[in-house]
Amino acid sequence: MKRLLVIAVIALSACSSNTTAPSNTDDDTATVGACAATLEKPTLGLSAITEKYRVRVWDDPASTTPRELEQIGDDPFAESTGYDLTVVESVAVSPKDCKVFVGACCEPVSGITFYEGKKKGEWLQLMGHLPAISPDGELLALVSYEELLISSVATPEKTSTTIALPKANEATMYKSAWINGDQVAISGFTPKGAFVWIATISEGTLRSGELITDAVNWESEDLWRVGLVGADENENLVTRRDGAEGKDILDFRYAEAFESHSTIEIPRGTASYVMNGQRSAMVTEKGVLSVWAGNGDPVQLGAGYVWAG
User: Which SUPFAM superfamilies does this entry report, sorted A to Z (predicted)?
Assistant: First the structure.
């Protein structure tokens, strides 16, 4: 019955804050750490960005109440805001030990990732953005201009592997996700369309880009709608592309062949849809956040969000 509840997703386009979302597996997944989501605690390890561009993280295993972080990066609504903004765009929480990494774009052009230091309230910086953490919580991946940087979550300032990405005048990267313990997917745009590149960490290699769609390229609008969604609990690569009649398509692909073996439809206006192993998180067009793990019931966390994962 996997993915059969897609009707519930389609119905979101007509719903308000009572939005629900589909389940994505019939099997529970073993917990791998302190912040690994479970059927009973799907919010554990979740992160989200509010409409005011403040970060919330559900990083307390003993609570379902999120922790709202102090302002990280620039406040885009501040009266003194200039043109060189560095605004939060995505967040990664280690399922192993709940460490938080906040990616911000786009000054400098390589982006900045913030992470908590040993002192309370101390935030340190790494060059690169779009942070993603491996399923076991051990490794951190960052996209830094024309490179993919891999380091240990424990010592993120020490890069262990560097893999060259396409040149900036050839492609612009927007999203990243671990497929398994050795592969990272990065999606972005070229003048020819939306693509996904897959890096294999143990080999230090990057596979040639695979086309998601040529209907959207780096000169198009609404680029957030197209690209990488993440990887599901079966290590399928999941991508999003434009559909018809007010809908977008999620393709579930074999990572090696990049072949789409099943699809579901979601409302075109869905602001954010992220899959991270057994957990899925969705933000509707109205900013309503829902999260679920395995075949557990969706948990609604209210409105006022622009991204969650």
Answer: DPP6 N-terminal domain-like
